[in-house]
Amino acid sequence: MPLVLRTQVALPANYRPQDMLALHARDALQASEKVEGLRVSKGLTWQGLPALLQLEVVEGAAQAVASLAVDGQPPASAGPPDLQAMVARMLGLGDGADQLELQHAKHPVLGPLLRGQAGLRVPASSSPFEALVWAITGQQISVAAAIALRRRLIATAAVQHSSGMLCHPDATALAALTPEQLRAAGFSVSKIATLERVCAAVLDGSLPLDTWAAEPLQPERAEAIEEALLAIKGIGPWTVHYALLRGYGWLDGSLHGDVAVRNALARLLDVPSVSQREAEQWLGAFAPWRALVAAHLWASLSAKSY
Q1: Tell me, what's the pLDDT at 1?
Q2: In the predicted model, is pLDDT for residue 11 greater than 90?
Q3: What is the arithmetic mean of pLDDT over 174-198?
Q4: In 3D, which of 124, 2, 118 has the Cα closest to residue 55?
Q5: What dihedral angle (degrees, nearest 10) is formed by the CA atoms of 217, 221, 224, 229?
Q6: Residue 234: DSSP 8-state
Q7: Within 13 Å and on the Cβ side, how many CA atoms surround 176?
Q8: Which of 57, 168, 179, 205 is the most exposed place for a label (fewest CB within 10 A)?
Q9: How far apart are CA 205 and CA 267, in angstroms?
Q10: Distance (Å, rounded) from C-alpha 282 to C-alpha 114?
Q11: Can you tell me whether residue 60 is helix, strand or coil?
Q12: Can you tell me the distance from the alpha carbon of 202 to that of 170, in angstroms, rounded to the nearest whole number?
């Protein structure tokens, strides 16, 4: 019988559940994530064990409730506080959204976008490892192609919860896949090599992604994580800043290299195109919320690109 952990998290009055729901509804086949109303059911790996997260925003109650059914017995040290911290990250909680709007709501260009998308927050993946794998998977391909590739990766890893829901693999399960299996799933040789390096670094302790997530991320720690990730061949600035955003809720990465961000910015500025350098300079004016501004730009195009 699965061990079931439960928690609840208070939500701000202006919370937008659609941001979190859209992230988990990207894959229409819903083999590892399912959205029904205001509830997300998601397969994940918890302390090396298959687990099913059910996360629901309670309409009108300004709170979210969550349960995690784990197949097996995780370490005693992993309990409701860890679940609550994970859920808070996944909901995108924090004061960055409100601070950005308070400071820049009257900006002549960004202000109307902020007011039109008031309360937008950036939902995170269930773990930094999942976020990093997603960032590597999405390198230089469309969102639709990345979603399909991620789906095949999860199916190939075949980590399954007793409910039948497939779970995103952890580093141990992903490292067990052969290059031939990953090639059959559609991964390029370069992405396979990058994933192998990441898994090896996580498993030997030189890339302690979960340890870094145990405390609120400060600029110095974010810089240290960035340095560690950039030292891995196959990982560049876009991958790092996207992983920091989706894995840790770090809102000050610069996503100027993102094509969708530049396209949205060009539309916002009413110009034919925006270069990476121009995007970097424009986003720089909104530090320490550059990644949150990028999320607003994504959302102005489509919930799926966001």
Answers
A1: 66
A2: yes
A3: 98
A4: 124
A5: -10
A6: T
A7: 9
A8: 205
A9: 44
A10: 16
A11: coil
A12: 10
Task: Judge whether 261 and 294 are in contact, CB under 8 Å.
Answer: yes
pLDDT tens column, 266-297: 999 999 999 999 999 999 999 999 999 999 99
Residue given tokens 């040290």 in the structure block: 77
**Strand 166-167, strand 39-46: pairing:** unpaired
pLDDT at 260: 92
**CA–CA separation, 270 vs 253, rounded Å?**
24
- Residue 18 phi/psi, 5-degree rounding, is -60, -25
Alpha carbon distance 129, 175 (integer Å): 12
Which amino acid is present at 71?
D
Q: The tokens of 68 are what?
A: 């995690």
Cα(218)–Cα(260) distance, integer angstroms: 27
∠ CA 159-162-164, nearest 5°, is 70
Cα 189–170–149 angle (5° rounding)? 40
Query: Taking a C-beta distance cutoff of 8 angstroms, is the pair 174, 196 a contact?
Result: no
* pLDDT above 70 for 85: yes
Whether the full predicted model's pTM is greater than 0.85, yes or no, is yes
Residue holding tokens 């928690």?
7
Domains within the chain, CATH numbers bracketed: 3-90 (3.30.310)
pLDDT of residue 148: 96
Q: Give the other-Cβ count within 10 Å of 128's Cβ.
A: 24
Q: At what angle do helices 290-301 and 237-248 cross, to 10 degrees?
A: 90
